[in-house]
Amino acid sequence: MKRLLTVLLSLVMALSLLAGCTAAPATDPTEAPAVTDAPETTEAPEATEAPEAEDPDATVLFTDSTGRTVEVPANIERIAVSGPMAQIVLFALAPDKLVGIANEWDATAAEYFDEKYYDLPLLGQLYGGNGELNLETLLASGAQVVIDVGEPKDTIVEDLDALQEQTGLPFVHVSATTETMGDAYRKLGELLNMPEEAEALAAYCDGVYARTVEISDAVQKVRLLYCLGDQGINVIAQGSYHSEVIDLLSDNQAVVDSPSSRGTGNEVDMEQILAWNPDVIIFAPDSVYDAVGDDAMWQGLTAIQEGRYYEVPFGPYNWMGFPPSVQRYLGMMWMAQLLYPETAQYDLYAEVANYFQLFYHCDITEEQYQALVANSIGKQS
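Now predict its structure.
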C-alpha cells in the first residue's frame, strides 16, 4: 500500500512539473528580456498657481486731458466728482462707485433714480455754484480719486496740483464738450477699467451728435430765441458756452456783444426781443411759458401769436443742458424733432426711453414721457 501511494505521489509531481514547463515558453538566453509597457498612469495635473490677490495698494500712471501724469489706484472702486457735469457723466458710467455728489439731486430725480443715491454725502464743487469743494467731507468719503469733467479752466493744472498736494488724493481732469463726449467716456473707461461700459455710452454720444449734424446740414434753420428767467428777458446768446445745441440746430437770434458763459444767460429788454421777433421761442423751465399767451407785450411776437413757443423738457434735468452735461443729447433729439420733424423722424418716446436706460439706469413709461413733454411738443394758442 505504501508503495502504491509513493508511486501516485511521484506521478502527480511529475505532471505538475510538465505543466509548468509548457506554460512558460523557452527563451533564448542571449535575448534581452521583453520589455512590457508599464501600466498607464494618470498624470498628476500640473500645479496651477493660485490667482494672485489684487494688491489694494497697486497704482498705475494715468495721463489726464491736461497732460498731467497722475498716479492713481490700479483698481478704482470709490470716486468723487468735482462738479455737477462730472456727477451726471459718471452717474451714467459708474453710479455705484460714487462716494459723494457735487450738488443735490433735483427733486424730480426721485421718480427715476434708485433712492440709495440720495444718501450720498454732498461734496460741493470745485468751480462755480454756491459752495466750494468741502475737503473735510471729501477726505472722510474714502474716495480714491477725484474726477473733473468738462472744459478746462485756464488755471486747471495749478488748481488740481494744489488740491492733490493738499489732500494727498489724485485729481484728474477729463475734457469734454458735446462734440467730444464720446472720447471723454473712453478716457474715463481707461481710468476706471471699464472700457466696454464706457464704449457703449461713447458710441451713443457719437451717434446722436453725428445725426444732429446731419439734420443741421440738411435744413433751412429756423430763427429761434431761447428765453429764461422769471421775466423771460434773459437769453442764451449765440456763441456762448450754453448755446452749443441751440446754435447747431437753429439760427439763434440772440446776438449780443459779450455772450455770457453763465447759465443765467444775458439779460436784455423786451424791446430787443420784439426787435428780434423770432419764428420760434423756447422757454426754460420755470420761466414765463405759462403766462406769455395772455400777456399783451409778448403777444406782439409772431411766435406767440402763432403758437410756436415751447417749454424745454425737464426731468430729471433741463434737457438743453443746465448743468451742461450729457442730457444735452436728449435736447438735441427733442429740438430736432420739434423744429424739423420730416427730416429728423425720431420716435421720441423710444429715444427717450433708450436714453433713460443707458444714462439713468431706469425705465420710463409712456405716461411719464408724456408728462415730461406736455408743454414741449406742440403748444396751441
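Residues 195-218 form the longest helix (24 residues).
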